[in-house]
Each structure stands twice: as C-alpha cells, then as structure tokens.
Automatic annotation (TrEMBL):
InterPro entries: CBS_dom, CBS_dom_sf, Mg_transptr_MgtE_intracell_dom, MgtE_N_sf, MgtE_transporter, SH3_actinomycetes. Residues 282-350, 351-411 form the CBS domain. Keywords: CBS domain. The lineage of its organism: Bacteria, Bacillati, Actinomycetota, Actinomycetes, Micromonosporales. This is Magnesium transporter. It comes from Micromonospora thermarum. PROSITE patterns: CBS. It comes from the Bacteria. It holds the Pfam family CBS. SMART domains: CBS, MgtE_N.
Amino acid sequence: MSTPTRVYIARLAGVAVFDPNGDQVGRVRDAVARLRPTKRPPEVVGLVAEMPMRRRIFLSINRITSIDADAVVLGTGTLNLRRFEKRPNELLVLQELLDRRVQIDPGGQAGTVVDVAMESTRDEWSLARVAVREQTGRLSRRGYLHQVEWDRVRGLSGIADARGTANLLAVLEDMRPADLANALQDLPDTRRNEVAAALDDARLADVLSELPEHDQVEILAALDRERAADVLEQMDPDDAADLLGELPPPEQDVLLDLMEPDEADPVRQLLKYTPGTAGSVMTSEPVILPPDATVAEALARVREPQLSPAVAAQVFVTRAPMTTPTGRYLGMVHFQRLLREPPADMLGGVVVNDIDPLRPTTPLPEITRRMATYDLVAMPVIDRNNRLVGAVTVDDVLDHLLPSDWRERDAASGPAVADEGLDGADG
C-alpha cells in the first residue's frame, strides 16, 4: 500500500473513496475490526463506505491501495454492493468505541476515547493505539490527551457504560440530515437516543424528518416532553403533524399544549384532515405575498436559506392576511418567471391563475395526476371560501407514494454484485 503506516480512524470519517479510474464511489463512514481470542489488538479487515442512495457496503482492506486523511483509493476489481452487515466477532470502531469511558494502565487513570489508530505491519492492519482524553473532573479545563497502546487500555471490550457523545457528534456534524439519519439507524437504540438527544433542536428536527416513523416516535419518546415540544416547533408543520399522527391522541394533546400557540395551531389544523388527501400532505407555510409586492421582493423571499427547493420554487399571491388561511387566493408565480421580469414590476401583473387549485379533500392519486400533467413542483390548496390554506409539493407527494418502509435500512433493497477478487471478510 502507498499509505502511512498509522492512520487515525476518526479522521477518515467522510473521506472520499475513489475507484482505480479516479471516480468517486462513496465516503468512509467507519472501520471494521475483527476481535481475536488472544490479547492481540483487533485486526482491521476493512472499511464501511456509504454509496449513493444511502447504501453502506464493505471494502476489504486488501482491496485498498492507498489510504490517508485525504482519500481512499481502491484497486482493481468489481465492488461488492451487498449491504454491509456486521458479524458477531466484529467491531465498528467509531460507532462502538468513540466516547467510551475507559481506564489507562498502570494506575487506572479514567478517560474517554476520542480516536483509535490502525497501524500496518507487513501482512495486516490492527488497532494498535488509542487516543484517550483524561477526565479531570473540572469543566474549565480539558484533560491531557494520552496516546497509548491498545493493551494498556481497560474497558474497550464488552458493553459500554453510559457515555458522552461529543466525539461521535464531531465525526457526524458535517453530514446532511438524511445521511445523519441513516447513520443513526446503524446505532444501537440506546446509543442512537443519546446522540439524538445531544443534537440541537433544529438539527434534530431536520434529522427526525428523514427517519422512519417508528424511529421518530422512539427518539421523541426518549426526550422529556418539554424538549420534545421544542423539537416539534422546529419541524415543518406537515412533518410535525405526520409525527404526532403516530402518537396516541392524549400524547398529541400534551405535546401540542406545550408548544407555542402560533407553532401548534397549524399542526392542529393539519391533524384534522383525512389521511391520503391534499390537506393531510400539504405544507401550511408556503411563500405568500400580496399582489402589490414587487418581483424583487419575491426573489428575496425565495432565496431564504431555510426554504426547501420545492417550497421556494414558486410564490403564491393572495389578499391579506398573508398567513394561512389567507385572504382570497389570486394565483402563483414560478421563480423562473420572476427571473424574466423587471425587478420593480408588481406580482399582480405577472400572476398565473389558469390551473385549478386543489381542495383539502382532493385524493393523492388525483394530486399526482394533475402535478404530472402540468409539470408542477407545487400546487395551491384552497378552501370553499377561496382562501389559500397550504400547498402540496412534489416531495410531499413522493413521501406518501413510496412504500411506507422506504427509509428503512434493509438488506433486500438492492441486488448484490459479485466481487471475484474480494479477499478477507465481506461484512
């Protein structure tokens, strides 16, 4: 291997993986080590890489020709795309060791694992050294960082006691919410709940929206109710309504009462709609402006970073008030039209109203047909008084058209591709 003889694994998290042609095939998420019956350090048998569409696969260490903190390069051969599954005698280094509370011999100094180094000899890689941050008992001072041999650290094997999350969060912090949600699904339930609870409210809200419903419910249930209500306030109203819809009505009422009234009211309204209708899948917070707003003002609104691409794709024009349910609905303007119009022009002069809006009771198949017919990424939803009550976006439709378990990490989600040159474990 054209590679350093010692590599700290936490520094590999997120590093790009390239095939022999220089094309990126994924990113490193962890390292796999095989436990040994003797006191020898575990042997590193490969890396776990995340591929497109959230698939995690095993990369045998024998297939890697170069490995460092900038890139991992594979040798020749065909990738085995079978989803990675850990074997009973294997260890996921970052998932299972980071933040573990241990003791350093001699003396039994207590500390926390912040990284683990793998070192290469002529014929193998092994977990040879551990970086341990000494516990000082003082919040004002960070403990001394020890880098010690594997066999000098007690507490690396077996079930970990309750532990912190700072170092694992540091590894995960740059992930997109969907990727972080995917990583949480790989953690044991207790560890997953610890990490989720350590995220700030906005970050946790984004991650919850990307998780399967049962994981959302379990994480929310592990929080105290005040914190759970704070997180729900950070979610889009339609996502919060979907999550609360999985809870018993008494628990829904408790959490809604703990939320700020202006955050809870749109969620309560969404919960009233029949499942499978426009009312049940719409967002109640699309971009809404009056007809005397200018094109420049509209472009400024759709550039707001917190808006999703589907919500920011168009502006809905209504009479006051500008929050749902609004005054009379007048029409909508797609952002591409805004880009072609003079900035000082008013929205009332460029509004489009030749497509019939949806009603809250419009069923999902009809919504899908109409959005496909007109090539729309969003459609307005109006009530019987012609007031805008929300908008259905294409991502809302996809979430409800895909199988209910589409977010699940299961082994049956794709075909395996044989790898005749794969040596060692295949995970």
